Amino acid sequence: MSISQPSSVESDSSGARKRTLQGPFEAVRSILILQTKYIGDLVLASALANNLQIAYPDARIVFLCEARFASFLTAHGIAAETVAFKRASARGSVLQRGLELYRIVRELRRFAFDMTIDLVDSKTSHFIAMILNARIRVGYFPTERRLRRFERQSANVLAKPFGYGEAHFLYRYLSPLEALGVDLRVRFPSIQPQPVETARVLALLDKFGLRRNAFLVVHAGASFPGRRWQPERFAQVIDTISNETGLSAVLVGGPDEAEANDQIMARVKAPVVNLVGALSLETLLALLKEARLFLGNESGPMHIAAAAGTPVVGLFGLTNPIRWAPVGVPSVSLRPSMPCECVGGDQCRRTDPSKAFCVWRLEVDAVASAVRELLARTETASETAM
């Protein structure tokens, strides 16, 4: 199917031919964004959705995402609707995976999408885009995983792996705009809490005797063990900064991160409020909006904090901050020198960022210094906010 849009054809360094667009499409009424990854990826992809909504104000934007993130996307206007998938089913038996894929495709087809944008770039997402067969199908070229002989890229609009000459993963998710010829109006994610969630957070602050813009939010968890700094070191930094500044600390995280936070609570001497497992993502965003600073591992909450406009100190291991640092706010990203001198022993898989414990090499003094520096750098803005 051809695209009714002025375009030219050029060759890349491998000789493959691809279509380059000369202007934005018109008459786009429905757009599907396939983004089935983690909350941090969805936060970064929200900048893509924001730009698309500006370019196509009459279009309905739908996300395919994991079920637990669906309400966050719709509550904050990132998506008009979502189609949710269950990760457990997607990782189940062949029959379970097949049934889940059939359900998803059936639900998606009722939208009759004009445009699909495949941010996942996987075998499954290629298949979904092919089956939906929207008039405009955006995908990456070259694909992240080399296609086998019997596979094909169903996209008819080809985006660079990273757009605008940038290396951060944000620009992987913004690259489809460049391919579509859509102006980049909003460069960074910006997600504001709902008034009802702000009211809920203000009530929590009052309950625990905390003042707006006068506490740290600390997240000691992460999706993978290799990305988690030691709990006892978080406790030391909290004590150091609290003694020096008088700032209290609030611990956040999911129910499955309680163990690390229990270790912090057992060691810390400064005033700490433990809200681990007690907040929805919507309420977490509102809490982060009221915080003076976020301190935590490379994680989804780190990106939520940045999108809320809160200064961030992010702790990195093997993952490179050039790709995943917080964006759009004052921040400090700490990473030990590389190549890493292994401290994880048999636990480490030295080439896998999720299983390499390089973050353990960050020292307490370095992290405390980063918090001090960022507090000082953002002091004027903090006083204005109060």
Description:
Helix 7 crosses helix 10 (281-290) and helix 10 (281-290) packs across helix 11 (300-308). The strands form 3 sheets. This protein has a 6-stranded parallel beta sheet, with helices on both faces. With 386 residues, it is of the alpha/beta class. The chain is built from 14 helices and 14 strands. It has 2 domains: 7-180, Glycogen Phosphorylase B (Rossmann fold), CATH 3.40.50; 195-385, Glycogen Phosphorylase B (Rossmann fold). 38% of the residues lie in helices and 17% in strands. It has helices spanning 39-55, 70-75, 87-90, 94-109, 123-132, 170-180, 195-207, 231-245, 258-267, 281-290, 300-308, 321-324, 364-377, 379-385, and strands at 7-11, 17-21, 30-34, 60-66, 81-85, 115-118, 136-140, 157-159, 215-219, 248-252, 272-274, 293-297, 312-315, 331-334. One of its GO terms (cellular component) is cytosol. InterPro entries: Glyco_trans_9, LPS_LOS_Heptosyltrfase. Keywords: Glycosyltransferase, Transferase.
Features of the shown structure:
6-stranded parallel β-sheet, Rossmann fold, 14 strands, alpha/beta, about 40% helix, 14 helices, globular, about 375 residues
Briefly characterize the structure.
By secondary structure, the chain is of the alpha/beta class.
Element layout with pairings:
Layout lengths: L6 E5 L5 E5 L8 E5 L4 H17 L4 E7 L3 H6 L5 E5 L1 H4 L3 H16 L5 E4 L4 H10 L3 E5 L16 E3 L10 H11 L14 H13 L7 E5 L11 H15 L2 E5 L5 H10 L4 E3 L6 H10 L2 E5 L2 H9 L3 E4 L5 H4 L6 E4 L29 H14 L1 H7 L1
Parallel strand pairs: 3-4, 3-6, 4-5, 6-7, 7-8, 9-10, 9-12, 10-11, 12-13, 13-14
Antiparallel strand pairs: 1-2
Pfam families: Glyco_transf_9 (PF01075)
Keywords: Glycosyltransferase, Transferase
InterPro entries: Glyco_trans_9, LPS_LOS_Heptosyltrfase
